[in-house]
Amino acid sequence: MIYQVNKKKISNGEIIAYRETGKDLKEKEPTLILIHGNQSSSLFYEHLMKDFEDRAYIVAIDMAGFGESTYKNSHIKIKDWADDVALFMDEMKISNGVVVGWSAGGGTALELAANYRDKVNHLVLLASVGVNGFLLPKRTEDLTPIDGEFLYKREDVIKDPAIMIPITRAIENKNTAFLHNIWGNTIFNLYPPNEEDFNAYMKEIIKERCFVDISVALCQFNITHEKKVVEGSGKISDIVCPVTWIHGKKDLVVPFFTGEESIEYFEREKILIPIEDAGHASFMDQPELFNEILENIINKQRRKL
User: How far apart are CA 44 and CA 281, in angstroms?
Assistant: First the structure.
């Protein structure tokens, strides 16, 4: 662990854990808010933070129910996690910043940008959940996905035998060996981290207390004006900041075509940046390329200060 874990109580009673660096740059340089994905925490961002610690004020949070943060209030919508981030920013006296959301954290970042426009200067979506939600396929008894049929009701999602049941059990039983194997075959299938980091990440996963809640929320997430699985909220029209969507071409968790389809829904400044030899964690798979993209975004913000 590189950075100390701090904690801040927000007005709804949750205590949000976070890592920060570049505090002396808070008034001089752009602010980066880093939001992790499902089955993870702020720890996953430490190497990225290290790379940018002299270029920005950086705060990486543990969303409620993850890592060292509390989970006192049941969260049923992705917006609930976004509300936490907004309250946390208020407590930290962070008026706005570049917000990076990875995977499920992309959904949180999307809701933050849609509902708290002034808080997000630039939205960076990293292998984000699609703008019309995570499409969890309904399956036959032999686990074959049924084309065009998806689960979204809580009672159905929790019974999913391919993802939900095995991962829920692994977290409950603190089976890091099982999770290590799953991540090695999906997220870290191209460029696995060193064993020390890998083991540390797996220990973070078993701290999660909201796996079912956020998974159901992702299946019910839709900020478009259309109905794919559930009716869309139309909140995508309220996103007014520039959007940069970064997606690994070899992503096995959220397929690249999700980014291709999602980027078309944004109504203002937007760009999709594919990273060829990267999977679901492109900021780890191709850090130099990813950092170059992020540096360009930070430079644009710097010129506005």
Answer: 10
pLDDT tens, residue by residue, 84-130: 999 999 999 999 999 999 999 999 999 999 999 999 999 999 999 99
Dihedral in degrees, nearest 10, Cα atoms 75, 78, 83, 85: 110
Q: Which residue from 277, 272, 275 is spatially nearest to 290, judged by alpha carbons? A: 275
Q: What is the pLDDT of residue 304?
A: 83
The tokens for 141 are: 């008894």
Q: What is the pTM of this model?
A: 0.97
Q: Kindly give the residue spans of alpha helices, DSSP state H, lying in the chain.
A: 46-52, 78-91, 104-115, 154-157, 164-172, 176-185, 195-205, 211-219, 256-263, 282-285, 287-304
Q: Is there a contact between 130 and 305 (Cβ–Cβ < 8 Å)? A: no
* 118 phi and psi angles, rounded to 5 deg: -70, -15
H helix or E strand, kind and range, residue 110: helix 104-115
Going from the N-terminus, what domains does the chain have, and what CATH number goes with each? 6-133+223-304 (3.40.50.1820)
- In the numeric block, which tokens belong to residue 34? 């880093």
227-256 pLDDT, tens digit each? 999 999 999 999 999 999 999 999 999 999
